[in-house]
Amino acid sequence: KAGVTEYLKGYRIIDAMSDIEYYKSGVIEMPVPSIRVTDAFKEVNVKPLWTYYCITAGSHFSNRFFCYHSYQNRILGTQLYKYDVDGFLHWGYNFYNTQYSKKRINPYIVTDAGRAFSSGDAFSVYPGDDCCVESLRLVVFHECLQDMRALELLSSLIGREETENLIDEVAGMKVDLANYPKNAAFILALRKRVNETIKSKI
């Protein structure tokens, strides 16, 4: 880092990381912690607070792997709201190669970058004739962002504390990055409650 810092003055330098010690030691000023360790960064009031997921966060965390239920993808919007996250990083948009880009792959046939990553990690769109073809996972991810925006609108009407309480009330538990109701019914019920409350306030 010392060898390049003088040439990068004025540029924002961010880095994904899985251990808070890199941040505490000053190696990086703007960390993007893995979703499984984001709580540690929030506890020391890192701002701006970003997070990311990929590969091996753990099955109880949000992600958009092929083998995950859609609710494990969509819950992220509610979690990003609750953590007041400023940004989200996910690297796999259209990586149609094996690991280290040694060979090209056909994503309609090979979904795991040549057995390097979990299926669905490396891309969320498919190549089309003249445009990208959205995956179901990307459509659900869009819904998760809409959930986050709806919660932000509700928060502007009734306040953040009451909005967070509403989330936990519908969930029947305190929702965080690792803990949430493991079913689609919760997300649909929450969105219905959010929409109804917004409607009653405007």
Question: Please, could you describe this protein's structure?
Answer:
The structure is a single chain. This protein is of the alpha/beta class and 202 residues long. 40% of the residues lie in helices and 10% in strands. The chain has 7 helices and 6 strands; from the N terminus they run αβαβαβαβββααα. The protein has helices at residues 2-5, 21-24, 38-43, 70-82, 136-158, 160-171, 184-201, and strands at 14-17, 30-33, 50-52, 87-89, 125-127, 132-134. The strands form 3 sheets. Strands 1-2 form a two-stranded parallel sheet. Strands 3-4 form a two-stranded parallel sheet. Strands 5-6 form a two-stranded antiparallel ribbon. α2 (21-24) links the parallel β1 and β2. α5 (136-158) crosses α6. The chain is globular. It starts with a helix and ends with a helix. The relative contact order is 0.13. The model has no long low-confidence stretch (mean pLDDT 94).
